[in-house]
Amino acid sequence: xxxxxxxxxxxxxxxxxxxxxxxxxxxxxxxxxxxxxxxxxxxxxxxxxxxxxxxxxxxxxxxxxxxxxxxxxxxxxxxxxxxxxxxxxxxxxxxxxxxxxxxxxxxxxxxxxxxxxxxxxxxxxxxxxxx
Length: 131
Known about the structure:
Layout: E1 3-5, H1 7-15, H2 22-33, E2 37-38, H3 41-48, H4 54-65, H5 74-89, H6 96-108, E3 111-113, H7 118-123
Helix pairs in contact: 1-2, 5-6
């Protein structure tokens, strides 16, 4: 089963050594080992953002290059806008990238692996599943 892994999980793996994130990192390692990762360009961009040290940036860029981008289709952007509007009607605001993640997850019929609590709110109004 493929899983779309959100930026928060990748950040724990690459940036944090805190024991409280061990469970998420272990799950990510298992998903990688079983070749069950889905990643999109927008998530790669978010992962790489904030690395002003070009040496560290390049090392991380090489690591995430191992994961093939799932292509974003025009219909994903339209679906993301629909999802954004649906959530807004219900008083929930979100980022364009979050709704793009939801749209791609919906199209591919894959779960989203995240610790971003906003996705719990989206899930109440959108046909998405969280790991």
